[in-house]
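Suppose a colleague, Dr. K., hands you the sequence of a protein chain of 186 amino acids and asks what its three-dimensional shape might be. Before reaching for any lab equipment, you can write down a predicted structure in token form. Begin with the sequence itself:
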Amino acid sequence: MARIPPVAREAMPAELQDLLATRPPYTIYGILANAPTVLPGFVQMAGALLTRTELDPQLREMVILRVGAHCESAYELHQHLRLARHVGVSEARIRLATDLGTPLAADGGADEVLLAFTDSVVRSVKAPVEQFEAALALLSPRGMTELLLTIGTYMMVSRVLENLEVEIEADGVDITSRRYYPEAPK
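The predicted structure, expressed as tokens, is then:
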């Protein structure tokens, strides 16, 4: 049971009910509704990071999984394992993203470069210049900014989830609707 109760949708102000009508019925939204002036901005930013960035959706999900693994956030890992599979991330790439014990090759491909960069940002705040340059060689300035915002946002989300002990929903939430997430690759 969460350390603080979620706000029931029907008890939320009408504007929050309207906002959340466009989102999956995740427990996190009821918890974040305890901060009703912050929830709209969070929904807007998280929605943009998931649906309107230039980052490749598979790499984005791998990075989010890596952050969730570092933060030991069961809720975050559960939700983004589902989304990673939805956007076509292979099981091998999921294992690479979630296994913090697997060494990453310094001269590896995009997956390893961005996961190593994520490791440094999570652990040390600022990545070494060589890692920054390697990641930037794969991304535009926009993509790099979006990557850092994604890492930071999911670090924050994981910390909120873990400290409030937000429970994973008992019922599966259908994530196949385009209303919530980008279409899965064909």
